[in-house]
Predict the structure.
Amino acid sequence: MILRNILSNALRILSMDMVENAKSGHPGAPMGMSDIFEVLWRDFINHNPKNPKWINRDRFVLSNGHCSALLYSVLHLTGYNISISDLKNFRKLNSKTPGHPEYSHTEGIEVTTGPLGQGLANAVGFAIAEKTLSSQFNKNNFNIINHNTYVFVGDGCLMEGISHEVCSLAGKLKLNKLIVFYDKNNVSIDGNTENWFIDDTKNRFLSYDWNVININGHDSKSIFNSIYNAKKSNKPNLIICNTLIGYGSPNKCGDYKIHGTPLGKEESINTRKFLNWNYEPFYIPKEIYNEWNSVKVGIKKENNWNKMLFKYKLKFPELFNELNRRINKELPKDWNEYNEKIISDIKNNLENISTRKASQNVIEKFVSKLPELIGGSSDLTSSVLTNCSKSIPIDKFSYGNYINYGVREFGMTAINNGISIYNGFIPYGGTFLSFMDYAKSAVRMSALMKLRSIHIYSHDSVFIGEDGPTHQPVEQLDSLRLIPNLHIWRPFNQIETVIAWKYAIERLDGPTALILSRQNIYSNNLLINNIFNIYKGGYIVKSCNEYPDITIISTGSEIELSYNLYILLSKKKIKTRLVSIPSTSVFDLQNKSYYYDVLPKKSKKIIIEASYSNFWYKYLENNGKIIGIKTFGKSGSIDELHEYFGFKESNIFNDIKNLFN
């Protein structure tokens, strides 16, 4: 039998060799965490390397993603589709082993990590999803969904503010299948953390109502016992692992410089001698591979689960079919007909309401049809209107479909990313548009990972009024539009809102942001007949029968003003067209023929949106004017603000006269 230290040294040496070969990377923490990885992956994690997407696998998240060499090493040794050649290509272009783990790029990688703390937040999302899905589908003697979520974090993850947000919520929700390993090596990039990080971590997590265990991170017996006891806890678990960074390096162990710098050829040789490792770089003896390989055990575990699932299918066929539908991201068969009925009802009962209220009406309808919808708000439920009559709050006793996130915009968004990755759910979360900035890094990660996650932002312009410039968004829309793969919808009425929601739910290759108004929008006289064109992101709302001299382009609540301007210009015999572009992201994907059918080249463009103007210049084609805002907002009534910022028909009409002159 091969001793544990030899098996963990295989991880150390592989990680060291990868960084050394790439001349780039982080060898210190992988060498320090190898003993913990060895015990966790060989004795506890339930997984099948031949089916990395098995729904009941244990989840593993490397929140300190700079330690990716260690994760790639363990995936290679346990039997995932990562070869020695892949390890040699560490950090090279288009390799399976990029500098930080990337979701859907490499087998066995559960989430993209790198921005510290967000992996921990994603893992909280996994734990919420597991507990919620199990409550919906498990029956007596049929624990179809029953697994743990394991997370590794470093000092940097726990310094990030997001760790406070998500861990306090995890404690409140009693996420007892969440087990977090804290690699406490007291080192970060700038040196010893005692100079800037003196938190009493144990008492901090005890105050969150976590179970906390303190161990020597290089003692296999202590590691084993800590995991064994954590699995029996009724609370989230933090295992504080006291380790030495660069463990095994005789001359650089404990030195902060080993955090992100290769050991060098000489110290790599010294480390091999110190660990009594007498093999060439990237060579692993067959007997070590045999001890590490998890394929046979993994296939057996999944086969046993499949036998239980087959019996479950026979006894609960409807539940089985529903679980299968959700895991495969399929929508109900009558989904389109259901939406057509909703739109038909709206057309027959148009109301002058805000789009946040229109969105709440959609949630009311969709929750009935889609039990996978799970949402919440950062303590703004009554303002953003993210709940409905069928919303059941999740707490430590019950698992429903609504999460009261508290004032945690960043944590909410990153947790929703985890819920989306987990599968079986469509998560959404809401806050004010001006507070999106708190969450932007997690919004970016949802776009990077191509997640079906829905970001709801209400109070969409300076025209929310008296709250003043701190709450009035100006640059936020432009900021969101710069994020690749994030599709943004700013609807102006109930029909556009339904279609925006439908689009977000049907989209499987990335997130969608819904930008909603606080104020009511008077749009009853703008009945939309060509519903299909709304799906294209931009369409003609009203138009003269000839080639238009002026095309007014607008979004959201400004459509009301634009329509009034359209009427004014039409009365003055000016050939005018009104275009709504609720989603520039989607409209820009259309072919050129449709694009220029909607926005004629020679027609002068007037673009009206109460946000920062720079984004819109691409639509002008040097032929028009943008009515926007380039300053912060003001505290005042909505009428005062319309006057102050020049969003009045008379002001814009004068601009148009000057444009023609």
The mean pLDDT is 95. The radius of gyration is 28 Å.
